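Supplementary Methods, section 5.1.

A reviewer requested that the exact input to the structure prediction be made available. We therefore reproduce it here, unchanged from the version used in the analyses.
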Amino acid sequence: MFCVQVFKFVKRGWMNVHPLFLVFVIYVITVCPTIYWRDAPEFIITGWTLGISHPPGHPMFNLIGKGFSLLPFGDICFRFNLLSLVSGFLTLMLLYLLSIKVLYVHFSSYPTAGLVAQEPFLASFKSSSLLSTLLFAFSYSFWMNTTVTEVYTLNALFLVIILYFA
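The structure derived from this sequence is encoded token-by-token as follows.
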């Protein structure tokens, strides 16, 4: 039943997540255009040269970062910052879909499960999921790690992928 709902959700188009594209625009406006002060220089250098950063090394970040470093615009620092930005945005999109999934699965186990498939309930799931995702998107910690070269947003993306498909 949930798979049918997700298919209908995706079939209607990605315009259901359009407020999150506004978050992407805000992130692009506030992205750091050059090197930031924490681990960013190390991650940029090791990603560019495919080296090993400090333990645990973050090899996936370095490999994906090498791909982003081949983009034909901006300087190397901006391209690696863009990697964090894109992984943070994908984290938010999947977090939004995950929270809809969790709400739907949780409330469909109640005795009034037939009401959950109705449009007002699905709309309330979407709006509460959007609100919680926006609160997470504009939290200081996530915003700062999304707009600079850090591995935390890529780790968050992998965590949300695992939770979504679990």
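The chain has nine helices and no strands. These observations are discussed further in the main text.
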